[in-house]
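User: Could you go from structure to sequence for me? I need the amino acid at each position, not a summary. Structure tokens:
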């Protein structure tokens, strides 16, 4: 087997939307009910098998969502092949903030980065807790060439609706198709969702 390639991915979004939970679920298959707020950024790695002969060492940067850490974000997303912008489906304000992150990434990176938009806490979609309409977000994602998904770090069961599966698919598709998101069948792949070291510094 060849030596694993490297893939840098950054998670962005408002505080308390579940970025750290998604990162932990993907990297270690674990979930913590009460995770502490990230300070600066946390760094996790996970080796992802692409096919029989190819693997990727995924470097996952989980950034702090508090406003006071915003100025540090470019240091972490610089050089990343992909970004996953996370919002909470029970918090409409978190989507507004996510759109600001998308705009910033598009202005800075143009076509050099694949951007995903993830509605987390899908396990809370029942009843009246949902505040974000998935169809509206999907339309926004299509208009902005984003990969859209709704998922739940808490209820991940390694199936097609799980966070680990979707993030893995996201990375595998990128690895095969390059940086042009419109060449990735983004909505079809993720539409099923609708029917560590704190304070780490990025490598130069």
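Assistant: Here is the amino acid at each position, in order:
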């Amino acid at each position: 087997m060849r030596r694993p390639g490297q893939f840098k991915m950054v998670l962005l979004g408002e505080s308390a939307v579940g970025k750290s939970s998604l990162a932990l679920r993907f990297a270690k298959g674990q979930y913590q009910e009460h995770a502490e707020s990230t300070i600066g950024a946390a760094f996790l790695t996970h080796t992802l098998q692409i096919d029989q002969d190819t693997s990727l060492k995924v470097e996952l940067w989980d950034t702090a969502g508090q406003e006071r850490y915003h100025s540090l974000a470019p240091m972490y997303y610089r050089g990343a092949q992909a970004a996953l912008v996370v919002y909470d489906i029970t918090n409409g304000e978190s989507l507004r903030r996510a759109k600001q992150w998308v705009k910033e990434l598009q202005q800075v990176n143009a076509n050099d980065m694949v951007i995903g938009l993830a509605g987390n806490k899908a396990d809370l979609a029942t009843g009246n807790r949902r505040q974000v309409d998935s169809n509206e977000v999907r339309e926004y994602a299509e208009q902005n060439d984003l990969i859209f998904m709704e998922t739940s770090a808490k209820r991940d069961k390694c199936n097609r609706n799980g966070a680990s599966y979707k993030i893995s698919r996201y990375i595998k598709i990128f690895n095969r198709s390059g940086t042009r998101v419109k060449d990735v069948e983004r909505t079809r792949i993720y539409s099923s969702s609708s029917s560590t070291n704190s304070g780490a510094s990025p490598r130069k």
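One structural detail worth keeping in mind: Strands lie at 5-13, 41-49, 55-63, 82-88, 114-120, 147-150, 197-198.
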